[in-house]
Each structure stands twice: as C-alpha cells, then as structure tokens.
Amino acid sequence: MVQVFAQQKDTLTVVANDASLSVNQITKEPYDPLAPSRAAFYSAVIPGLGQVYNEKYWKIPVIYAGIGASIYFYTTNREDYTRYRDAYKRRLAGYTDDEFQGIANETLIRAQRTSKRNMDVSLAVAVGFYLLNIVDANVDAHLKQYSISDDLSLNPEVDYNPFQESTNYGMRLTYKLN
Fold first, then answer.
1. Which of 24, 81, 104, 124 is deepest in the core (most CB within 10 A)?
2. What Rg do the C-alpha atoms of the chain give, in angstroms?
3. How many angstroms separate the CA atoms of 42 and 30, rounded?
4. Residue 19 domain-assigned (yes or no)
C-alpha cells in the first residue's frame, strides 16, 4: 500500500490568549499640573536639573558645553581687553615699554573695543544658554504630559452656502476637554 501526503500534520498547539487587557487594567500616569513649573524652577536653580527631572539626560552636556564655552570666551576676551587697556593707559602716561611695541595707539583702541564687544557677546550667549535651559525644561515637561488620544480628529466636510450658491471652504479642529 502506498500513501502520499501533501503536507504533514500540524504540530502547533493552541494556547489561550492571556495577553489581552481590559479597560480597567490599563493605568494612566496622573496628570501633574505643576510638573512644568517644577522643571523650570529646577533648571533655574541648577542648570540641567530640570532635564534630569524630565529624564532627558542627553541634554545636560549640551547645556554645560554651551555655558562653559561662553564663559571661557568671556574670560579670554576680558583678559585681552585688560591687556590692551593697560598698555594704552601706560602709553598715555608716557611709558613705551609695553608688550605691544610697534603697534599704533589707534590699533590698541580698536583691539580694546573688539575685545569688549566679544566679551559682551560671550556673556549674552551664556545668558541665552541659561534661559534656553529653563525654557527647554518647561516645554519638555509640558510635552511629556501631552495626551495623544483617539479624540483628536480631522473631519473634512463640504458646506454649501445657499445664499451665494457656492461652496464654503474652511477647516475646523475640534478638541474635547475631559
């Protein structure tokens, strides 16, 4: 007797699906309305602490690199400004033995102004990074609590205007508050 089989018998066993969740089993994190202001306060006290609070650790080196580089350039430009100013003051007092021999007084004045401007820009950038740190912590805490639900929808519809015998074009976004 010859038997021919087109396929083998299925050896998989059927297991009951226990992975389904009921609506009562799903837990939501409670909404904390003070979280954005708390994150901003933490970042204002210690730069980067708001990012730690929001668990965005990768932003901390960016903040400290920006503030640190700005402070470095501020101190470097302040030292240059002081050197140019002191040399110019010594020349006005009649001394000619400064480190900038062969450079005209007008050039020292220009270098002094440039260093002062760069010093001011560096300070503004450092303050900008500090403020950006606070704003970032606040916005990130707001976005962390943003709800993405099925209630948000965009339903285009055509509205006919019988008085003008034409179609009205427009868009409406409906947001339901709980």
1. 81
2. 34
3. 21
4. no
Report d(CA 35, CA 135) in Å as an integer: 13
Q: What is the rounded CA–CA span in Å between residue 38 and residue 44?
A: 10
Range of the domain at 96: 39-142
Tens of pLDDT, residue by residue over 27-37, are 666 667 778 99
- pLDDT for 92-115, tens place per residue? 999 888 888 889 999 999 999 999
User: Is residue 157 one of the residues assigned to a domain?
Assistant: no
Cβ-contact 149, 44 below 8 angstroms? no
Closest CA to 126 of 45, 47, 58: 47
For residue 160, what are the contacts with CB-CB under 8 A and spacing of at least 6? 166, 167, 168
Q: What's the domain count of the chain?
A: 1
19 contacts: CB under 8 Å, gap ≥ 6: none
Euclidean distance between CA atoms 47 and 25, whole angstroms: 39
Helix ranges restricted to H, 12-57 = 35-45, 49-53
Closest by Cα among 80, 118, 77 to 99? 80
Segment 160-169 long-range contacts (CB within 8 Å, at least 24 positions apart):
none
